[in-house]
Amino acid sequence: MASVLIDSIRKNYGTASVLRGVSLSIADGEFLTLLGPSGCGKSTLLRILAGLEAQDAGSLSIGGRAVEGLRPKLRDVAMVFQSYALYPHMTVASNMALPLRMRRLSVFQRLPLLGHLLPATARIAAEIDVEVTRTAKSLGIGHLLARKPGQLSGGQRQRVAVGRAMVRHPAVFLMDEPLSNLDAKLRVQMRAEIKELHQRLGVTFLYVTHDQAEAMTLSDRVAVMLDGELLQVAPPQDIYADPDDRRVAEFIGSPKINMLEGVVRERGLIDVAGATITIEADAPAGAHLTLGIRPEAFHLADHGGQGVLTGSVRMIEHMGSDLFVHLDLAGIDQPLIARLLAERAPHIAPGQTLHVGVRPDRVLLFARDGRRLHRQAESGRASVTPIREGA
Ligand SMILES: Nc1ncnc2c1ncn2[C@@H]1O[C@H](COP(=O)(O)OP(=O)(O)OP(=O)(O)O)[C@@H](O)[C@H]1O
Ligand SMILES: [Mg+2]
Question: DSSP secondary-structure letter at 117?
């Protein structure tokens, strides 16, 4: 088992700066997910950690040991690749045995015929067989050992790739979008299996995905990455409810958080989309702020008033227990999306005027530069004073 320390890692490809000083500390046994859009540098960071690529600056340690210059197989990490990277001409058993053969058998012992004449080869090969069979059974692929990857389903291939990583008993698992080639249903099933695997093995997992549902359900902590930088590292719930940065708030959540431009009218009142919300922002009258409101933060209101936005229903998405109602607000291009309980809002129709209320404590405030403005109760970095009672 091992902790991982990533300190100020930089990486350029030509003139492109792909990692811009990434620092991250992962605890022993933690499940940490790197979450970010395509091209933000997730795989690059993982490959550097695995030793498949060298950083331009910064340092790494695994289990308290600096790993600079250590070859991949000496780093005590195992990587599961997005593409699985299985050898098509080899059986499942041979694919899974490969990392152990590379580590435990010498070049001569690995020779097809001669190798078997050398002392100890047979014993080590038998031990490897036992390990491979045991691991395959634990993953439910014991009956597939003689098949080739081309004769497997996507989910079975994925298990073989995980099995190949497991046989080495690494201190750290690096998983690069291991589920992205699977269909939606299988992805949910395999997600549960990966979580269970982590609990069973108790080792450190660094998991890469651009799927926020995966990140939210699997992780102890999520590191949100954008353009080669980490924006926030926190438990899933905090990333969602308490984002540090406008970009984090916009990346997490589906449907996306509503962002509305507001102006402080006077102390305690913000004008937004033709309505007024009572939030005691510690900003001067006339200051421009962005209000971030998640779709589920709205509730149906009978009429307009303070803290109530009014718009015209553009479209309704029926999601079973919920409705996503798209509302056109006066003077705003993007429709507002409110998530309402279907049973509370049975008769909504396009074209109708609708009032939706929002509690001030469900509003996230962002400064013009995208920084979150915290309320006093939340942190010492107060720029916004507590909400008035009875708002
Ligand atoms: N060997 C390379 N040479 C040049 N540019 C590269 C190389 N590898 C990656 N890049 C670039 O670095 C950036 C980050 O790539 P990386 O593969 O780390 O992204 P990612 O976050 O894993 O994306 P995805 O979610 O699509 O897998 C991309 O713009 C990519 O084009
Ligand atoms: Mg990638």
Answer: G
Architecture category of domain 4-247 in CATH:
3-Layer(aba) Sandwich (3.40)
Contacts of 342 (CB under 8 A, 6+ apart): 318, 319, 320, 321, 322, 323
In the chain, where the domains are located: 4-247, 257-373
Ligand 2 centroid from CA 15, angstroms: 20
CATH topology of domain 257-373: OB fold (Dihydrolipoamide Acetyltransferase, E2P) (2.40.50)
Q: Tokens 């100020």 identify what position?
A: 8
Q: What is the pLDDT of residues 175-217, one digit of tens each?
A: 999 888 888 888 888 899 899 999 999 999 999 999 999 999 9
- Ligand 1 atom showing the smallest separation from residue 53 Cα: 1
Atom 7 in ligand 1: residue holding the nearest Cα: 13
Q: Which of 15, 38, 44, 181 to mutate to test the pocket of ligand 1 (most atoms within 8 A of CB)?
A: 44
Supply φ then ψ for residue 385, to 5 degrees. -85, 165
pLDDT tens, residue by residue, 344-374: 877 899 999 999 999 888 999 999 899 998 6
* Residue of 11, 13, 81 with the most ligand 1 atoms within 8 Å of its CB, for mutation: 13
